[in-house]
Amino acid sequence: MAQTADSPDTIVATFEIRRRRFLDENGVAIAELPAFGADRDLMRRIYRGMSFVRLYDQKRVSLQRTGRMGTSATALGQEAIPIGVASAMREEDVLVPAYREDGAQIWRGVRPEEMLIYWGGDERGQHPADPRVAHDFPVAITVGSQALHAAGVANAMRLRRQQRVAVTMLGDGATSKGDVYEAINVAGAWKLPLVFVISNNGFAISTPIERQTAAETLAQKGLAGGIAVLQADGNDVFAVRHAMLEALDRARTGGGATLIECLTYRLNDHNTADDSTRYRDPEEVKRRWAYCPMKRLGTWMRAAGHWSDADEEAMKAEIAAELETAVERYLAHPAPEATDMFDHLYASLPRQYASQRAEAERLDHG
Amino acid sequence: MAQTADSPDTIVATFEIRRRRFLDENGVAIAELPAFGADRDLMRRIYRGMSFVRLYDQKRVSLQRTGRMGTSATALGQEAIPIGVASAMREEDVLVPAYREDGAQIWRGVRPEEMLIYWGGDERGQHPADPRVAHDFPVAITVGSQALHAAGVANAMRLRRQQRVAVTMLGDGATSKGDVYEAINVAGAWKLPLVFVISNNGFAISTPIERQTAAETLAQKGLAGGIAVLQADGNDVFAVRHAMLEALDRARTGGGATLIECLTYRLNDHNTADDSTRYRDPEEVKRRWAYCPMKRLGTWMRAAGHWSDADEEAMKAEIAAELETAVERYLAHPAPEATDMFDHLYASLPRQYASQRAEAERLDHG
Amino acid sequence: MAELTLIQAVNTALARALQDDPDVVLLGQDIGMHGGVFRATEGLWQRFGGNRVLDCPLAETMIGGLAVGMAAEGMKPVAEIQFLGFLYPVLDNLANHASRLRNRTRGRLSCPLTIRVTHGAGVNAPEHHSEAIESMLAHMPGLRVVIPSSPSRAYGLLLAAIRDPDPVVFLEPTRLYRGLREEVLDDGRALPLDTCFVLREGSDITLVAWGAMMKETLEVAETLAGRGISAEVIDVATIKPFDADTVVASVERTGRCVIVHEAARTAGFGAEIAACLQERAITALLSPIERVTGYDVVTPMPKLERRTMPSPTRILEACDRVLAWG
Amino acid sequence: MAELTLIQAVNTALARALQDDPDVVLLGQDIGMHGGVFRATEGLWQRFGGNRVLDCPLAETMIGGLAVGMAAEGMKPVAEIQFLGFLYPVLDNLANHASRLRNRTRGRLSCPLTIRVTHGAGVNAPEHHSEAIESMLAHMPGLRVVIPSSPSRAYGLLLAAIRDPDPVVFLEPTRLYRGLREEVLDDGRALPLDTCFVLREGSDITLVAWGAMMKETLEVAETLAGRGISAEVIDVATIKPFDADTVVASVERTGRCVIVHEAARTAGFGAEIAACLQERAITALLSPIERVTGYDVVTPMPKLERRTMPSPTRILEACDRVLAWG
Ligand SMILES: Cc1ncc(C[n+]2csc(CCOP(=O)(O)OP(=O)(O)O)c2C)c(N)n1
Ligand SMILES: Cc1ncc(C[n+]2csc(CCOP(=O)(O)OP(=O)(O)O)c2C)c(N)n1
Ligand SMILES: [Mg+2]
Ligand SMILES: [Mg+2]
User: Fold this and answer.
1) What ipTM does the predicted assembly reach?
2) C104-142 b/e with 16+ CB inside 10 Å = b?
3) Annotated catalytic sites of B, by residue?
4) How many contacts (CB atoms, under 8 Å) link B and D?
5) Residue A366 above 70 pLDDT?
6) Cβ of residue B143 lying under 6 Å from some atom of ligand 2
7) Whose alpha carbon is nearest atom 17 of ligand 1?
């Protein structure tokens, strides 16, 4: 149908998607860095946090390989995201993670051994001791379900006029779920103090992002709900943290929700049960190592005078020791009681289920 | 966080939403009309179709008011949409309606009495006799559910390399459902031959569109799935039909899905069980009558020499007679048998349910 | 004390809960200025404002998910789903999240939410508006499922549901909304959420039902009384956790039992009750326990809906068979 | 004839169905090049191409809805949902659409789709991966619900499910996927979708189970045999429509029955079976029918999952009680 000169169409709305990046893949600044880059102590903590994620992941996988751990997923190549996000949040904010953000959970106060207990197949790992994370959500296994829970948390904050923000973390695959869209929509409609962080690591198990959606960016998923959107280079912790600070500030000051798409790449298999050579070219993975967020930040840290070889060595030894302790505590954790299944089912167990509990107890000890 | 001169942000994608309109509210062309405007016979059929919807709706409501009809919803003020849509479709296309598109269903071949039978509380109304609508979907009561069904229909067409298109019709409220988003997303990912028509009539029962979403337009819901999007003046049948022809052509030639937001206004209560004075200002409704699609097209038709007072009178008499017949057939329709509940439950009723069927039969006739 | 309909009793309980506890927040479609499709929330938005009575975008999954998040933060969301056929999209959040958040965090977080939703047929409503799926809900560990059968029980059970520290699905029998009036004292007294109610004592047969079917069941008891047969009538009220003790005790005395429900027969909650009874009272049974239920058919549209709902005739026939047995 | 595992039998049946009928199309997450998280579709994308084996975006509601639309157009979609905990978002389409499209159009449209989904615990999987909710599905009129317990029955029942003109949920016991091998003849022969299978004949007690629990149930029958007690073992296989005749006939002979299932006790499908048995065979019953089931708890994570699954010990204790009764 040809368009005529006196067009029947008028443009009623326009949108643009911006992508944020401070450091290139060689760790060289391509834009003026945010002020926090000058905070030597903070940047060292961030670098250490990312290093911790990498070493913790290695440890967890090696436990799995030796039969002492269940299935779980690592953040290999994505370390800048959990740390960029968690380091920008305040204690009173609430983290509503997926299942690949152990780094963010640990930064906020969950102990590494608690995460190991959880991935080892025990609910007790989701009850961390640190009161700072008492409001944070547990790992979300059902992909995308956490988005609406975070919206509910944010709605409670809004109704109570608190200066707190809910932050939820999602994968690229999760953006295909209706739950996530519904959360985006209500976040817009109610101006919720909420940040959606999407780690676009290119894959949902075997499904590459190109087959997940025809949307040119995942950031534009937010346009459907009328919320603020932004892309960030997810392997540049400056971009992630800067975008987060902006979004958190917007949320805290009544400006509503933001969706941040962090562009990254999953260098590892989907999880310890997966073999990604079945569906992707190992050469591509090799190539992607050039964009490693650790290397990028490490290079910059050294160039900025924030970090040295000696620091690196000391840090690695320190983390190794910490992880050793965590693993010991994990392995020494006493087995759960069968009655645990009943004791947190309701605030108090209805009398109707007492005989089932009694049987479970008898057989557990028998 | 202040933006620095050497900005870390680059624009990676831009989008615009266009709105289409040919006739202003006074029936005056504001852009060169599409070629079909010169097709006198077609335009008369379109005008008649819209008039039919209005009179059919009146009849249905009056049946309800006299206790001879169940709850149902009219298209008052929205008549250009079902007719603009249905008149653009081909017989072999598939219509997947909501519950306010009787006009489109009837245009395609469902008999008015069949619609009445359905709204009168009888499933048999969803089995119209006309083979032309054998593939069309029944009314969808669960809001938004039809979007994915239409995507499935479109997917069958795609896999079979047919030149057919699925068309689904939705309300503004429906766009908040995750189902609809999921349908949009897969329509993009798989380039489905599918058109989403959203009748944005300003309300979902009592909820005004401003509280349904913060999105500036509903058209932009399509951006989240990377499909083509457009707004049309839903009270201008030229705009609706023109947008549909373009979208159908795109779909038929492998160009994928389109989402068309038709801007209209619900002049009536939500349905016959609703009283909209509880939640909206009757003055606003009065004001909106100025945009009535019937009046607009009627004025243009007369100015174009396609229509006269005599035509109007003759048509009204004709439609009245047709509706009289439909009502007679509806009222004379024999009551269903209790066994009908069992006889279309499965292709053949499992023996396990035979005794239930027998009891129902016995009590029905006893 | 006022004579209230069931829907008014619901409204009164909601007002009381909003009044008593600032953490109680209502969620739903059209519950604000409109007052809800059945007027359950009439006047509450006007009285408590838009921060306590929240009109939601049209998305049931969203309502369920929001309620989980709000409850985890310590609020007490009370969400209305307009009709039971629209509850299906909420089941994911009920089964995977609401009912397990306490357990999966070993008591750290909890989910004190209430979902209110209409239940049952008989009001000439469109498709998907007349369902009865309480047994699906009863199969979800960690949940409570409640259904009142009178205005006063609606009031007391709804208050209990809202105050309960765990998730509760509160089913409201649409057919009873305006059908009967009862004195309801707005005293803020809740009823227990784990107990059946004996509505009529009797010694010859036990009739067990819930929700709108109590009406026909009580009618039949009356008919039987006219014939000199003394029927005990039990309103299950709380489907989960099910108070088998009360029913077992009754059947141990009567030896005969008919269970009545509107939901489809197969895997309906009547099966659970019958299974419990034969487990615990087999020696007392003088005849098989009969179930009079909706047929295993898709809930019909209005023209046929009464043909699957248990009628007094069907209930009476079952009673006759059970009484004549053996 | 090849010795196949259950997952290989599923794969073989899928290949056969794709080969035989051009309208058969597979839908699911990671079922293409990847071959599925359990390898059920291994090699099928390579063999039949991307227009027959469709990798889907990550959205279960979408998979259900697409399948309804495709089926209405006459295709025979076979959709994989990776784990039963992710089936909840599909229930809306199953209950409101797939199972009623035929009925609501009085036979004009139909919905010949199959949903394949894993069932049950015992494989050390994460949360939401080990559910058992067959009774919820069995409560949906218009649906069929099937669960095999051996490679050959998986093959024959899956072919039947795919060919069936109505919607079928096909539950695959994860614990059995690789556990046992059996000769499976790829002859395209389907098994009936309304019949229980008697796996072992016996005269003293009837043991009824399905899916992975057949393993422990057969073990217990063997133990009982060692004690001179002859147990009949029935694999229900098709949960809906349930073949009560076979079970009733057995219990009429044995007079005693133990039902075993992994799902939570309350409103589990064992209740339906017990209810049917007491209705139809009460005079034959020498003792109450016992149910040995998962407890009414949230499916535990791996460290405790075996503590709720019926163990041979629990089954045997129930048999002992039933045998000693009266
Ligand atoms: C609702 C649901 N469907 C399917 C799965 C199985 N599953 C686990 S992870 C995953 C892929 C998720 O991809 P993405 O969201 O991109 O996150 P990533 O794993 O890449 O971090 C799938 C399909 C699940 N856990 N939940
Ligand atoms: C899933 C679902 N939720 C709620 C309802 C009740 N309901 C019927 S129509 C309607 C409003 C729909 O609004 P919209 O999509 O704008 O369509 P309109 O009625 O304006 O044409 C609602 C909430 C329903 N039918 N289905
Ligand atoms: Mg991913
Ligand atoms: Mg509307």
Assistant:
1) 0.98
2) bbbebbbbbbbbbbbbbbbbebbbbbbbbbbbbbbbbbb
3) 266, 270, 279
4) 130
5) no
6) yes
7) A171
